Amino acid sequence: MHPPDEVIQVDRLSKTIDNGSTRVEILRDVTFSVKRGQFVAIMGASGSGKSTLLGLMAGLDTVTSGRITLDGTEIQDLREDELARLRGRKIGFVFQSYQLVPTLTAEENVLLPAELAGFEGDAASRARELLTRVGLKERAHHYPVQLSGGEQQRVALARAFVTSPPILMADEPTGNLDSANGRQILDLLLALNREQNTTLILVTHDQQLAENADRIITLRDGQILSDVLSTAALKA
């Protein structure tokens, strides 16, 4: 049996939070789907709901209403241990704040998801290869406090790639990088997408990155303002 073409389905998704005496609507009635192997950029002004949407799709936050189907499994009602197992098998996630473990070296941080998931194969070689690809071969044994913000971001990206997840989600993956390092990360993302048919969903303000995606979904005030093919996809 062939896997379904749509790897992620978001159906009438809403997220509301209580803010003292008022209720704040972060997302409202958001519906879209993502095909397997597609590269989708999510854009919008600060406060539009981009990061919240990404966290909900990864099962890192709870929905108020609506459904999220991840590779055939509805995730909104799963227990935390079930979500954790699903994430371990299906998703690599890059946080905007890096979320590196301060007591582990760069290489050990990259290895961590592989060890937790029982990764088959030479995980250490995979970690070293990825650190080399993000330009940090010589920094593998440094701790996060010894790394710049941009270097920590690249470690976080390598960590997300280490188990070769079928889906990669990233929140501003080039947000703390200069143009040269940002291009290096973009090239790595595109290679992952091409070589392994990885589904990429990235929240970004980087127009260059977004234009290399297949689709650009733009949010405004918690709703989808537009969902269009990118320039790269139109030229293909």
Characterize the structure shown.
There is one protein chain. By secondary structure, the chain is α/β, with parallel strands linked by helices. The protein has a single domain, classed as 3-Layer(aba) Sandwich (Rossmann fold). Helices cover 35% and strands 29% of the residues. A six-stranded mixed β-sheet has the order 6-7-8-3-9-10, sandwiched between helices. A hairpin with a 2-residue loop joins strand 9 and strand 10 (223-229). Helix 3 (106-117) runs parallel beside helix 5 and helix 4 crosses helix 5.
Question: Would you kindly provide a brief summary of this structure?
Answer:
With 236 residues, this protein is α/β, with parallel strands linked by helices.
